[in-house]
Amino acid sequence: MEYRIDDLAHAAGTTTRNVRAYRERGLLPPPEKRGRVGIYGDTHLARLRLIDILLQRGFTTSHIGDFISGWENGKDLAEVLGLQNALTEQWAKDDTVEIPLAIVGEFLGDSDQLTRMEALGLARVEGDTCIFTDPELLQGFSSLAEYGFTIGQLIDVHERIHTAVDGIAKDMIRTAKKHIVDKHGDGWLPGETEVGATADMLVNMRELAVHSVNAILARTLDENLQRELGDYLVEAMKRTGR
């Protein structure tokens, strides 16, 4: 994708002032110039996310600058960018939907449900507007509410799924980290001939995790539905004397 500086800052969850500061300090490559407008790309977005990760871990911009320049020195830039993207690419969809807060209140029923959705990262309030970060999930809630489910019940289900899947994600990441540490030792960074392979390993690990969760969930839903339906039919036949 292509971004102007305001769009890039918004996508990265930062400010245009920070983007300019990172450029001046050499942390962010310059944009492509088209006339008087600077155009940024996905590599800039990945770099901003990497900077944010390191800042959150307590590194200064000076440390980050040394790290990035040392990392790139002597290595193939395409492979470096590939590893950077593998580390920072967001697989979750960025789609959002904005709904007036007054309408949201009518849909959710009470403010507690909105608070719960905010805590789960499913919604955020900005002024008189509520921004839902997963429109597809919101549509699912709305569809099931027509069958008599309460929003509270549906959020309960989502919370349990979130907890279970979060545990799976942590396990996969710990496995990848342990593999790297066992093989290379603490503090290892990929060398010139290892950057591409490391990026491929991370991408493959993520794809395996997503496939595993989807496949297991689909299979166990089928199994449990058939079992519960069978039990229900048996009990129904007993009650009706058939």
List the helices and strands and how they pair.
Elements: H1 5-12, H2 16-24, E1 32-34, E2 37-39, H3 42-56, H4 61-72, H5 77-88, E3 97-100, H6 101-108, H7 111-119, E4 123-126, E5 129-132, H8 135-145, H9 151-184, H10 195-240
Low-confidence stretches: none
Hey, roughly how much beta strand do the residues contain? 5-15%
Tell me the number of strands: 5
Could you tell me how far the N terminus lies from the C terminus, measured between alpha carbons in angstroms?
62 Å
Element-level helix/strand string: HHEEHHHEHHEEHHH
What is the 3D form? Answer: flat
Helix content: 55-70%
* Biggest sheet record: 3 strands, antiparallel
Number of helices: 10
Strand order of the largest sheet: 3-5-4
Structural class: mainly alpha
Mean pLDDT: 83
Radius of gyration over alpha carbons?
Answer: 23 Å
Task: Characterise this structure.
Helix content is 68%, strand content 7%. α5 packs parallel to α10 and α9 packs antiparallel against α10. The strands form two sheets. The chain has a three-stranded antiparallel β-sheet. The mean pLDDT is 83. With 242 residues, it is mostly helical. The longest helix is centred in the last third of the chain and has 46 residues.
